[in-house]
Amino acid sequence: MKKPMIGVTTLWDAERQSVWMLPDYLDGIKAAGGLPIVLPLEMSEEDANQVVETCDGFLFTGGQDVSPELYGLEDATGTIVASPERDKLESLLLSKALQADKAVLGICRGLQFINVFLGGTLWQDLPSQHPSEIAHRQGKPYGVPSHQVKLSGGLKSLLGKDILEVNTLHHQAVKDLGSGLMPMAVAPDGIIEAAQMSGKRFVWAVQWHPEYLFRTDLDSLAIFSCFVEHCK
């Protein structure tokens, strides 16, 4: 049986003008039985059509902030480091993936981007706009949970629990949910930490980083496995 082929959105280093990839994303997919394929940063619409036809699912990775222009605002905090190249590519790719009803998993920026694409908004900088006792950007080691989230929806059904310990590496977060999205996890300070899209085969996104946890945490591996299973 062929493994599901999963396109992984590339990371971009603006300073070095280079694309790169954290192996943890790829390893999480491989551990769940998928075949990860690192995608280019730029592609034509024709290329995107071929990629979506070829791949069985897509992982939208973490990275730079989502440009506030995509949700009709300006940088209100002076903290945003965006990547127009990623915003353009991922808008094209996500549009076609949703049209084709391909399985989609978003991680960190991936949740934020999917939310904005569907008409949602973001907290541009949590420390200044949504102060909390929770430090949403932990230091190393990243493979150690630092706070809890309360589960609902698909994640609660998948993991069979109400509370999950997660790690955290972000300064932006979902503010208003986009069209068709429902929360699946909420932090004690009210920040939405995961969401799923109704009416699609599989569109899930989480704010934390299961790619740093899956080697020792069965719940994180279960998220990758559920995604890969829906790619088949």
Q: Can you walk through the features of this model?
A:
The chain is of the alpha/beta class and 232 residues long. The protein has one domain (5-231): Class I glutamine amidotransferase (GATase) domain (Rossmann fold, 3-Layer(aba) Sandwich). The protein has 7 helices and 13 strands. Strands 4-1-5-6-13-12-11-8-9 form a 9-stranded mixed β-sheet, with helices on both faces. Strand 11 (181-186) and strand 12 (192-197) form a beta hairpin.
SSE string, helices as H and strands as E: EEEHEHEHEHEHEHEEEEEH
CATH topology: Rossmann fold
Rough outline: globular
> From the structure provided, what is the oligomeric state, counting identical versus distinct chains?
single chain
Provide the helix percentage. 25-40%
Domain unit count: 1
Q: Please list the strands of the largest sheet in the order they lie side by side.
A: 4-1-5-6-13-12-11-8-9
Quick overview of this protein structure:
The chain has a single domain (5-231), classed as Class I glutamine amidotransferase (GATase) domain (Rossmann fold, 3-Layer(aba) Sandwich), CATH 3.40.50. It contains 7 helices and 13 strands.
Q: SSE layout and pairings?
A:
Blueprint: E1 5-8, E2 11-13, E3 18-20, H1 23-31, E4 35-38, H2 45-54, E5 57-60, H3 84-99, E6 103-107, H4 109-117, E7 122-123, H5 126-129, E8 147-151, H6 153-159, E9 163-166, E10 173-174, E11 181-186, E12 192-197, E13 203-206, H7 218-231
Parallel strand pairs: 1-4, 1-5, 5-6, 6-13
Antiparallel strand pairs: 2-3, 7-10, 8-9, 8-11, 11-12, 12-13
Helix pairs in contact: 2-3
